[in-house]
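Dear colleagues,

As part of the handover before I leave the project, I'm documenting each prediction I ran so the next person doesn't have to rerun anything. This entry is a single chain, and its sequence is reproduced below.
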Amino acid sequence: MGDTAAIETALKALGAAPDDGLDIAEAALLLAALDRPALDLMPYRRHLSDIVGALSRLDAGPEVAPRAMALAGVISVEFGYRGDTETYDDPQNADLIRVIDRRMGLPVSLGILYIYAAKAQSWPVCGIDFPGHFLIRLEGEDGSLVLDPFHGGRVAAPPEMQDLLRRLGSGEDVRPEHVRPMTAREVLLRLQNNIKGRAWRAGDIERTAETLRRMLLVAPNFAPAWRELGVVEGKLGRIRQSIAATERFLMLAGDEAASLEAEAFLRHIRLQLN
């Protein structure tokens, strides 16, 4: 695309689109392109089309099991995508451009490929807000299956999900909120949250702020990101930006306790202008 401003404009347009009209793969490519605005995205778009074409040729039918087998076969076998078990925390794993280059990534970045390919077949599909390990739910006329994109698209039945919770250090049972369906926008936020969390843990406050701003391009009304951005901008000494972000949070927030905390923060940060 060659121009950061043009990429941001395209992302804002996607951010204004309704959830069911948001092109999840295009948005993820554009988010990754912000780190390399001169890169030609057409080969990556053609690659996504190749995945869709390969899946279309299989004619998997209306039942969910053949659809799941076709989806996993195309993405993990034919195109060779896999979870990065060796360097899981590598930031490249949350960057769709590098995921395509390397054919490996995080559960959520790989899940975007699965969701994109399935939606192109008009198959009902969504992300699952499972703690610590992104999953997808695929549907057919005879029911639904939960799939694990990180492990070759294999079926994650309730015992496997329970085992995942145990391995993630949780002693609780799988509950309805663990399998809550996610919108495409929420999936993109989860992808960016991986990048933001790694930047924050590494002490890269500037990268944290930049990632929050990117999240808000695709989800301009996502109040928690405005709240975080206000705090991070304050840490960077950008007081006016901190005030603006916090005021935006207060316009959007419906949580009375969070609003009271933000108002106290706002009073504190405004004193730094004097």
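Strands lie at 82-83, 104-105, 125-128, 135-140, 143-148, 154-155, 181-182. The CA atoms of residues 196 and 210 lie 9 Å apart.

All the best with the project,
I.
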